[in-house]
Structures
1.
Amino acid sequence: MKRIKSTAIRPSEITPREVFVNRRALLKALGLSTALVTTMGMLGAPPARAAAAKMAFTRNPRYSTTETPNSYEDVTTYNNYYEFGTSKDDPAAYASSLRTSPWSVTVSGEAAVTGRFTLESILRPHPYEERIYRLRCVEAWSMVVPWVGIPLGDVLKRFQPTSRAKYVAFKTLFNPEQMPGQRSSVLDWPYAEGLRIDEAMHPLTILAVGLYGEVLPNQNGAPMRLVVPWKYGFKSIKSIVEIHFSERQPVTSWSAAYPEAYGFFANVNPAVDHPNWSQARERRIGSGVFAEKIPTQPFNGYANEVADLYRSLDLRRHY
């Protein structure tokens, strides 16, 4: 397993442009008082942290980076989750409207075992693991997150996919009453993502149900989300309600909305630019305001584990 020494990248040294231009985050970074931030009416008060249930898990060092994780506040207040709004702080502000219990997942397609399953029946047979993964967003920012979850492959095997199952697709809950961002036309809802079956079965791919040893917060994709650490964050679909095995490559939300920028594979590749910016360097969320960007690693630093999956592909064309 490729490891990065924690001394190589110090989160305290790096701050993303997005934090710099976000007034609330900037004021906090500059050390201004909570009272001053609260009095600035347009900013409002930051959301209070709700009490979360603790989880029983074992730490898996084999699949964990040695980098220092971001703070709980970083990870839970700076999110892309358009179902609750397009600003990075919208999910933390509005995701409390999401009801995560009871929750069920529909499994369909090229598999011997299909139907509707409770969340508990999907998760219960598997012991939870903590894995500290890097998360790289296409907007050129990154985090280090201590996820708690289970290998996706272990779950999928229980449904006995057939030899025709070349891909596995996922959908997010569609409920505009609970998810106000779905009332906008920013994307075609519900959110859809997909993986090749070998990507889905790879031991690095997990279903996350927690953070920092606690139950996953709504704004981070409760009650269950995908985490694929060598891909850009938009592949890690949140609040999953459908799993579908298919022979053909599925349509995915961002690839359909902006195919010039968001390909189906979405592997972190510093040599392939987004149409509007370079992907060669990145900033770590929660770091100093004036810190320099750091080089982006191919496959987000997981090349030793996953590069062989793509040896037959042109990674500039299959982005």
2.
Amino acid sequence: MKILVYGAGAVGQAIGGMLAADGHSVDFIIRERYIQGIKAFGLSITGIFGDYTIDSAKLGLFPSLEPVRGKSYDYILITTKSYDTGEAVKELVKIDKGGFVVVSMQNGCGNIETITEQFGDERSLAARVITGFVIERPGLVRITVTADSIHIGGNIEGEIPKSAVKLAEAINKAGLPCSATPFINRDLLAKLLYNSALNPLGAALGVHYGVLGDDPHSRSIMNAVIEEVFAVITAMGKRTHWNSAEEYEEFFYHKQIPATYNHRSSMLQDLEMGKRTEVDDLTGYVSSKGAQYGIPTPVCDTMSEIIRFLEWNGG
């Protein structure tokens, strides 16, 4: 298959690199500093799913879409931050020949809706990625932890698009556990629960997930966030995989946190590098939807403002 990874940070480089190692044609839209590192050393992916090395000559490395305007692709994987989704879609329209399927592989909710507005249901997919990826240096990505396999699906509840099955099979064969699902929106809401509970608090306190799960004070805050997120999901008329906040908390503390115990969130890493975080697409998203549906979200409101303060003041 021919694949373009748009906004290839840690997630995009790992998934795209492993697909390239398995024989697929992969191009990256990627920052210049990473291009130089990959050209010098090749691209290596290491960690819990094994070791992979791809010669840079087998990858297309481009800082913008301009050099690929005449190329055709089967899939375009968007791996930017969620706040860049709208701009990514505007850019992809410029190379659209009516063939490729666009896949959001991002945090937060609302991304697949943005993609679908432009490309329609048949050409739009979302992936729930709940795995830790870290760029250790340009050209080297480590996969550190995973709470579950990658899930890929379409925006229509109960249906599994053939394009989702094909891509999931390719990613799975390349070495990353992956499957197609008819309930991707439930998965994305489940990830919203997980990320909203852990990422802002872990970033604000500068600790990994396990510390938050072990301490009764941080558990109290996370429980309050989970309850608010669950109330907002219910008010929106949507559902995820659990019938109550309490049921999810049981899974969260006994399954998810142990599986990702030592992980430091991308939000914490963004603050440490002085970068903008995705808080507006996590607890900020919950706050905005809470206001829309009349659901109080005081803890999510507070966590969002703390992260914005840290962004404004350089972490």
3.
Amino acid sequence: MSLSFPPFTGAIKILVAINTAVFLLTLLLGITGHGSAVDGVLETFALNPHHVAHGHIWELFTYAFIHLRFFHLLFNMLMLWMFGSMLQSHWGSRQFWEFYLFGVFGAGLSSVAVAFTLEKVLHQANVTPYTYGASGGIYAILMAAAMLFGDQEVFLFPLPFAMRLKYLVGLLALIALVGALGSMGGLASLAQLGGLLFGFIYVKFVPRRGLAFASSESYYGIRNAYHRWKRERAKKKFQVYMRKHNQDPKQYFDEYGNFRPPDEKDKKGGPGGWVN
């Protein structure tokens, strides 16, 4: 058994730097008496379901980079470092970015869905108009880590015993669930747990190399199918032309569809053979 810190490079370092920079910016604005500027940041970049419904789609991503409380930031960044580094080492930076933004987007979408359900179905107003913080992406990371490395044992400081990762993730998810239900606007906060669902969806149903790779493969597959269709169409047109002129296409093509070289007497070039 060895004790060591997880790697702190690549996407993890960039995410921690962005979240910390935004927190320090809002803290500085608050200290200098520019509270209206902080409100402007929330108005523009925090997640508001009614804003999203009116076209502010970027809020489904930008809300995850805003923290207004130090311990909220600290907890999320520690979870990102501890478990996100495992996924980045397993997938690589490109796919980890894709997964993290997928989880953030899924949690934000869940927040919007729950907010409108409360308002339209249960006739309950959304108590907390803004949602912010990286919790949705963190929950997606926790779910993916539990599914991929569930039997790996880890220590949760300061507890003096090891625990399997899948049980630790279950415990953290339960704590988050209880905390959401016990807070103001708990049902709206509970929607952040949609990150767990989208983390499960990504690991379970997305191709091994990620959405971007699958999309590129699909694009090239469609493009190749189009070119094959064009070749078959040209082939049929040529066959119709040859039949109209009472000529056999087999004189020009072999059974594999390759062009037959003309007879030596038909060549008009030098002594070299015909190159197809």
